[in-house]
From TrEMBL:
Coiled-coil annotated spans: none
Domain Dihydroxy-acid/6-phosphogluconate dehydratase N-terminal as annotated: residue spans: 30-340
Organism the protein comes from: Faecalicatena faecalis
Boundaries of every Dihydroxy-acid/6-phosphogluconate dehydratase C-terminal domain copy: 351-541
Lineage, top ranks: Bacteria, Bacillati, Bacillota, Clostridia, Lachnospirales
PANTHER family per UniProt: D-XYLONATE DEHYDRATASE (PTHR43661), D-XYLONATE DEHYDRATASE YAGF-RELATED (PTHR43661:SF3)
Superkingdom assignment: Bacteria
Protein name: Dihydroxy-acid dehydratase
Length: 547
């Protein structure tokens, strides 16, 4: 905003910018564009972002803007995999959004180009765009190349499974050297790549660029073009509230169904809707689950990687397949509508991206389950559930945490036909809604994922598969039914029927509820405590906002 930088009253601002190396003409006359960069040396998903951010800034300068780069927090979920610290990841989304908000408000940027790759970091950037509501976009870090080991392609999730499958330390070392061979987000349909893809659908990432692999130098060229486009976006005045409409978010839900994206995308889409004041609920996910089958054969729904997905046509190809169902009048970030954009895209059905007429699965990539165990909704990815456990009736084995369940699996206490219940790991209970990497990887490693069910108020990694039901709400900490389950109770998981049921009478549940005592918060200080005291429930996105 020119008025912020001109006149005698702005002298103290200008001198700070001049002292940082900016010229008077740049400060006074050009749009100031913040470049929040989630560069961090400790992860392949973010260690290459300096170069991408530099290309973005070159584009901004070339188009007549003034870039101002600043750092935002970044982590890698795999670092905390299996540790208590994993519960910081969901909280991190809100911390990232607040970091961008804090710096951008003080510096009064005219626009933003955020650089991010992974999980809750990129979701936090999208949330920041919605909250700031100034012309904003995101440049993704792209996906990692798959590794190669013993003649086959491997990804990081293969290492997790091998760890619990009896592999020796020497064998694990060989895999460690192979599974992550480049920079970029792990190349399966985890949260990172799901959210990168959804950025295109949400009008925050330039069309066709989200999934360019980190190793493809087109990523740098497109980052430079994104910087140029950001200046045009600022001059046009188009804000996230103009570009992320209800129809755009409904298109995002359909896309997520089609690609069998990470279940975490539900939290992030709902949070975007709440931040923008748009009425989107789990009922919308239920509605489109009836219409949209999975057409994407990327791990874990199929054998391919996100690198394959990109070269098979990427997001534009999926959107073209979905065109009969989409809101084609929805706006497009580079002008016009999605319908106009898709008129120039040719459908290319292939082994990675199938057509709606010949889908990979007849089922959707995501389904909402209800029932007395989760009256407010629970989530499953049907395409990642083996056929033998799409319907399972079993005795409950109850644990108040991921590690306790993991130790029981390792000790051989879980047998085929059991239904594991893991509770007090939800938004408030963890706090932070932990991903259950320990217990689920152990189930897969021991071959129990085809005979055992799992129900939890926690969430899962996009790498995970099995009869795993998450996001159960109300969560245990709020006194939900999951808090009342006792060892040996009968639980029915009916994925085709959309139900998860505790076979205990209402009268008995009332008695148990009367005797239930809410435990103290696990964290009594710091950001986890703040999150637990301010977050919304999972079915509203689980963000730290007192809406």
């Amino acid at each position: 905003m020119e008025s912020y930088w001109n006149g005698a009253e702005a002298a103290h601002r200008r001198v700070m910018m001049k002292a940082a190396g900016y010229s008077d003409a740049d400060i006074r006359k050009k749009p100031h564009i913040g470049v929040p960069n989630s560069y961090m040396e400790g992860s392949p998903g973010s260690a290459h972002l300096r170069q991408i951010a530099e290309a973005v800034k070159q584009g901004i300068w070339a188009a007549g803007g003034v870039p101002v780069e600043f750092g935002i927090p970044a982590t890698c979920g795999n670092i905390a995999n299996g540790a208590e610290e994993l519960k910081y990841e969901q909280v991190g989304r809100d911390i990232v959004a607040m970091s961008v908000e804090f710096v951008s408000r003080v510096h009064n940027f005219d626009g933003l180009v955020m650089v991010a790759s992974c999980d809750n970091i990129i979701a936090g950037c999208y949330l920041a765009a919605a909250r700031m509501n100034i012309p904003s976009m995101v440049v993704t870090g792209g996906s990692m190349q798959p590794g190669h080991h013993c003649g086959k392609a491997v990804v990081e999730a293969d290492l997790d499974v091998a760890r619990f499958s009896g592999s020796t330390e020497e064998e694990l070392m060989e895999l460690e050297e192979a599974v992550c061979p480049s920079f970029g987000a792990c190349p399966s349909m985890g949260t990172a790549n799901t959210m990168q893809m959804l950025g295109e659908v949400m009008n925050l990432v330039m069309p066709g660029t989200a999934t360019i692999p980190a190793s493809d130098n087109r990523k740098l060229r497109q980052a430079r073009e994104a910087g140029k486009f950001a200046v045009k976006l600022v001059k046009s005045g188009r804000r996230p509230s103009d570009l992320i409409t209800k129809e755009v978010l409904l298109n995002s839900i359909m896309f997520d169904m089609a690609v069998a994206g990470s279940t975490n995308a539900v939290l992030h889409i709902l949070t975007m809707a709440y931040e923008l004041g748009i009425d989107i609920t789990l009922a919308d996910f239920e509605k489109y689950a009836e219409k949209i089958p999975c057409i994407n054969a990327v791990i874990p729904s199929g054998p391919y990687t996100v690198v394959d997905f990109h070269y098979a046509g990427g997001v534009p190809n999926v959107m073209k397949m979905l065109e009969p169902h989409l809101f084609t009048d929805a706006p497009m970030m580079n002008g016009g509508t999605w319908g106009e954009y898709l008129s120039g895209v040719t459908a290319q059905p292939n082994e990675v991206i199938h057509s709606l007429e010949k889908p990979l699965f007849k089922e959707p990539g995501l389904k909402i389950l209800r029932g007395n165990l989760s009256p407010n909704g629970a989530i499953v990815r049907p395409t990642a559930v083996p056929d033998p456990v799409k319907y399972i009736r079993g005795k409950a084995k109850v644990f108040d945490g991921d590690r306790s369940a993991f130790e029981a699996i390792e000790a051989g206490e879980i047998v085929p036909g059991d239904v594991i219940v893991i509770r007090y790991e939800g938004c408030k209970g963890a706090p932070g809604m932990k991903e259950l990497m320990l217990s689920i990887d152990a189930l897969i490693g021991h071959g129990l994922h085809t005979s055992v069910g799992l129900v939890s108020d926690a969430r899962f990694s996009g790498f995970n598969y099995g009869a795993i039901i998450g996001h159960v709400s109300p969560e245990a900490y709020d006194g939900g039914t999951i808090a009342l389950v006792e060892e040996g109770d009968e639980i029915v998981i009916d994925i085709p029927g959309g139900k998860v049921t505790l076979e205990v009478s209402e009268e008995e549940l009332k008695k148990r509820k009367a005797a239930w005592v809410c435990p103290p918060l696990k964290e009594q200080k710091g950001c986890l405590n703040l999150f637990a005291r301010n977050c919304r429930p999972a079915e509203e996105g689980g963000a730290m906002q007192p809406w």
